[in-house]
Amino acid sequence: MDFSFTEEQTLLQESVSRFMQNDYSFDARQKNSQSEEGFSTANWQTFAELGWLGVTFSEADGGFGGGAIETIVMSEQFGHGLVIEPFLATVVLAGGALKHGGSEAQKSQYLPGIIDGSSHGALAFVEPQARFNLADITTTATADGDGYVLNGYKAVVLNGPQANFLVVSARTAGEQRDEDGISLFVLDAATAGVSRRDYPTVDAFRASEITFENVKVGADSLVGEAGQGLAILQQAIDDGVLAVGAEAVGCMEVLYKDTVEYCKQREQFGQPIGKFQVLQHRMVDMFMEHEQSKSLMFMAAMRMAEGYGSEAQKAVSAFKVQVGKSGKFVGQNAVQLHGGMGMTEELNIGHYFKRLTIIDTLFGNVDFHLQRYGTL
Asked: Cα separation of 45 and 116, whole Å?
């Protein structure tokens, strides 16, 4: 299996890396997270102008024909910079659902806006009772003439506050946990009957609790076939797992490298603490956890690039398990070796740790993906 990047992928990696180093400072990130939007609209427009928002879409849809490899290339660099712009929510999740299952008319309507940065999307799929089971859905879509009426509730909708359109999972048939009978719908976020409660998350992103009360949508809002939406949703979520996992790999690299540098400078008993053998062992362990995660990142991306199926799903779950374990280890040790200042708001260490903690629970935690890996 060849893990080397093509020339185009290398150029993409260098482009994102340069932007993170030169134009995406931690202080600016913190300031932007407190703005009304929760991120920099100027940065988002720059992402669009540089073509990053269209990389993973096909050329037929106005993109550049990239896929899983390009996703990890960008997301790892986003992890280095601790990016808060809604690439995951808009491009990977909402855009991914339309990419995998949308009609030509739906793609023509929504994807150009994503690619040029003028439109934001959100995937509304989480329900409080479901834990991480994508098929556990109480939101209903009842046939009504030529369309449907949506009723229900979705929690932790990433980028909900800024979303212009929503992709929503709802049950059109079957019992609450049946895998059949789940449908996806795409609709304008301002549709009558849609109400939101917006809030910031612990890792400086924004999310919404969204209620659907007698929301009427046309038949043209249906993404894919009625009752067959779970497969589309699952593929979009696995794309999301790959993206946040790669982001976590980037976060871990910054944490272990910054910790090594800090231990070279911090003195105790007349010498740098980095000279103490027990701390050297700890830092080597942090490095090894990062490298193991990066290896599984490449494996998962290659499996996804070869074609989506059970082998790709197993590789993605194995990657998510490793990221969950390694992220916790690297984050905790980075904070500990920095001492009390590791959790201050002014230092970036604690913010990387918060992001790793959230990534562990996004789209299924270690226990969930370990069980999924064993049943695939």
From this structure: 8
The residues, any chain, with a CB within 8 Å of residue 230's CB and separated by 6 or more, are: 134, 135, 179, 180, 182
Maximum C-alpha span of the chain: 80
The per-residue pLDDT for range 203-219, each reduced to its tens digit, is: 999 999 999 999 999 99
Indicate if the alpha-carbon torsion angle 176, 159, 73, 321 is positive or negative. negative
Q: How does DSSP classify residue 92?
A: I
> What is the structure's pLDDT at 267?
65
In order of start, what are the domains of the chain with their CATH numbers? 7-119 (1.10.540.10), 122-227 (2.40.110.10), 231-375 (1.20.140.10)
Predicted TM-score (pTM) of the model is: 0.94
Which positions ≥6 away from 171 have C-beta within 8 Å? Answer: 137, 138, 139, 140, 141, 178, 181, 182, 183
Tokens representing residue 300 in the block: 């998962």
